[in-house]
């Protein structure tokens, strides 16, 4: 089976944008691939190194959300990045051969330096983020990495680092396969204010939110600005609520009826939101049930992470044995 690796930083509870854009695809991949899914806590320190006090709690929240949406520890390895020491060891080795220019030209690095001016990001950890990301992927010799388009630049650096390592130390053989970018379809999941859903914007619908909370948030969502009054016709494609309908509502006739009713003003935004809430409730009911069940099992969560780290560590250890041999670091 082909190997898949992906990870998420533990920054707190995940939202429906994460579920639609990544986690739903991860659940499908675990059925057909050898999957390694990591809560990348070293990466969390990239920008929050000054105060790691929330790291442990945030890790637990991410794990609960993963299990709630359907990631199965019997079908994939679920683990914390720092619990597999080979991530840090390979990161050190790869940092020796990665040109600074590759990192300084990374568009994400430049963008975040501009956008996160309230934090001191003049650290190697922040600049070297793509090297650690490469080690996360290459230590499992992953064939595929499911990412959104915003991560393609980092993945290309991972491919270049793998190529450079093979050229220097491979001796004609491929130690690291060049990981393929598995672009995931990211449905547009806007927040309650119409912008991209984000915790930092305070506009998110969280996976852990109970239905009364989700109901209240949806009822206050912005809609097509052209519909100032109930009698004003609208355009669904200009409405954030419609984007959520497209993900949660699989009733095609009802979707056609809502679209037509919006354009003719025969239904109001409240009617559209009521239909959406019903479909969200249906989709989220088993997710909330699983989350509540796992949240009550403290020891089981620790066991899941320990077993995941054991499986991941066994594969990572084999890779590092090859790396040490290639670097002439084996015992005399």
Please outline the helices and strands:
Layout: E1 3-8, H1 16-29, E2 34-39, H2 41-48, H3 55-69, E3 76-80, H4 86-95, H5 100-104, H6 107-115, H7 124-127, H8 129-138, E4 144-147, H9 152-169, E5 180-183, H10 211-219, H11 240-248, H12 252-264, H13 269-295, H14 298-326
Parallel strand pairs: 1-2, 2-3, 4-5
Helix pairs in contact: 3-13, 4-8, 4-14, 8-9, 10-13, 11-13
In CATH, what is the class of the largest domain? Answer: Alpha Beta
The residue-averaged pLDDT reads 93
Low-confidence stretches: none
Helices, by number, come to 14
Please name the CATH topology of the largest domain.
Answer: Rossmann fold
CATH architecture of the largest domain: 3-Layer(aba) Sandwich
Q: Within the largest sheet, what's the order of strands?
A: 1-2-3
Distance between the termini: 36 Å
The radius of gyration computed from the alpha-carbon positions, rounded to a whole number of angstroms, is 22 Å
Global morphology: elongated
In CATH, the homologous superfamily of the largest domain goes by the name HUPs
Largest sheet report: 3 strands, parallel
Overview of the structural elements:
The protein is mainly alpha-helical and 332 residues long. It has 2 domains: 3-189 and 298-326, HUPs (Rossmann fold), CATH 3.40.50; 209-291, Tyrosyl-Transfer RNA Synthetase (Orthogonal Bundle), CATH 1.10.240. Helix content is 54%, strand content 8%. It is built from 14 helices and 5 strands. The chain has helices at residues 16-29, 41-48, 55-69, 86-95, 100-104, 107-115, 124-127, 129-138, 152-169, 211-219, 240-248, 252-264, 269-295, 298-326; strands at residues 3-8, 34-39, 76-80, 144-147, 180-183. The strands form 2 sheets. Strands 1-2-3 form a 3-stranded parallel sheet. The protein has a two-stranded parallel ribbon with strand order 4-5. The radius of gyration is 22 Å and the shape is elongated.
């Amino acid at each position: 089976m082909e190997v898949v690796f992906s990870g998420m930083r533990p920054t707190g509870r995940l939202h429906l944008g994460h579920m639609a854009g990544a986690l739903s695809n991860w659940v499908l991949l675990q059925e057909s691939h050898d999957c390694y899914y990591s809560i990348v806590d070293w990466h969390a320190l990239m920008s929050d190194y000054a105060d790691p006090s929330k790291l442990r709690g945030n890790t637990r929240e991410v794990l609960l959300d993963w299990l709630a949406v359907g990631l199965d520890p019997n079908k994939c390895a679920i683990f914390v990045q720092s619990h597999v020491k080979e991530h840090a060891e390979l990161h050190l080795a790869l940092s020796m051969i990665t040109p600074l220019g590759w990192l300084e030209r990374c568009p994400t690095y430049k963008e975040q330096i501009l956008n996160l001016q309230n934090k001191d990001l003049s650290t190697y950890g922040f600049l070297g983020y793509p090297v650690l990301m490469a080690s996360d992927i290459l230590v499992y010799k992953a064939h595929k990495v499911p990412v959104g388009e915003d991560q393609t630049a980092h993945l290309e650096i991972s491919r270049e680092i793998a190529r450079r390592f093979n050229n220097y130390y491979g001796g004609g053989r491929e130690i690291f396969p060049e990981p393929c970018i598995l672009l995931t379809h990211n449905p547009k999941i806007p927040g309650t204010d119409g912008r991209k859903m984000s915790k930092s914007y305070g506009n998110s619908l969280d996976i852990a939110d109970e239905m009364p909370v989700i109901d209240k948030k949806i009822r206050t969502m912005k809609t097509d600005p052209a519909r100032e009054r109930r009698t004003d016709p609208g355009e669904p494609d200009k409405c954030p609520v419609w984007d959520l309908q497209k993900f949660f509502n699989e009733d095609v006739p009802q979707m056609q009826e809502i679209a037509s009713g919006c354009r003719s003003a025969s239904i109001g935004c409240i009617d559209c939101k009521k239909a959406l809430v019903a479909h969200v409730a249906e989709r989220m009911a088993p997710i909330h049930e699983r989350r509540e069940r796992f949240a009550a099992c403290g020891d089981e969560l620790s066991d899941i992470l320990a077993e995941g780290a054991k499986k991941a560590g066994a594969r990572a250890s084999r890779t590092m044995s090859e790396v040490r041999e290639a670097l002439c670091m084996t015992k005399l």
